[in-house]
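2024-03-11 09:14:02 INFO queue: dequeued item AraC family transcriptional regulator, len=304
2024-03-11 09:14:02 INFO validating residues
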Amino acid sequence: MNHIVFFLVPGLHLLDLAGPAQVFSTAADSGYPYELSYVAERTTVPTAQGLPLTARLDPPELGPRDLIVVPGWRCRTLAASPAVGQDTLRLLRDHHDRGGTVAGVCAGADLLGRAGLLDGRRCTTHHDVQDELARRYPKATVVRDTLFTTDDRVVTSAGVASGIDLALHLLAGRHGPTAAAHVAQDMVVYARRNGGEPQASAMLRYRSHLDDTVHRAQDLLDARFDRPMPLPALATAVGVSERTLTRLFTRATGGLTPLRYQQALRLERAEYLIGHGTTVDAAARAVGFEDPRMLRRLRARDTR
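2024-03-11 09:14:37 INFO prediction written
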């Protein structure tokens, strides 16, 4: 069982919490091994929307596969954010030091900064306080006007509904894009958010169209992106010619062919594996590349 721990700060925004919580709760309902906990420094936590929440004082025992999420809170400036104790900051640092992932939604990035987890890493937050975040943590690289960032198991998002996209991205990285697509479909969320973040899920970036034929082709590619899927077989499976499928696919996805889409899925999964200690060669084999040089070329192209 993987624990998802939400650390609740007084004045938190309900959607900053509810969005990611719904993603992982829906994933758990679908059979994925997640258990959600809500932790705070006090048992009753007021929210920005006036609904008090109840939390536990002690977090469960956490391991490297577990995640701590800090939802954002209402504040005009980060300097006016609620105070937290040293035990809270130590909890965040120790979890990350042991190989775990920490995430901050909106102003939640500031709490990660207070714990020293933003230094030397890319991060983002709501556009209203991006400049202040950069001033408060000059050793961090604040990426402005982007949906979310992830850097060495430190994940931050722009705020409010973007927490849903952050959680779907993490789910896709752990279980593949099909799992995230199913959860998004169950939640009836729009399966794409503009943001310009290169590590955003390919499923989120290229699913905003209304072409049923292309969606069916993407479903097949999502489910078996790590296996060969020749264009003739894909076209036959969705009931159109190769030429028609290529034309529809490139139009719907803004220029991607089915092969390039599959490569995007493979690259995304490979980057996750590499970020968690897998070698490039092993990651290439795991995502379906027969020759690791292809993965190296795609990674080089993606960083240009």
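2024-03-11 09:14:37 INFO annotate: The CA atoms of residues 46 and 52 lie 4 Å apart.
2024-03-11 09:14:38 INFO item closed
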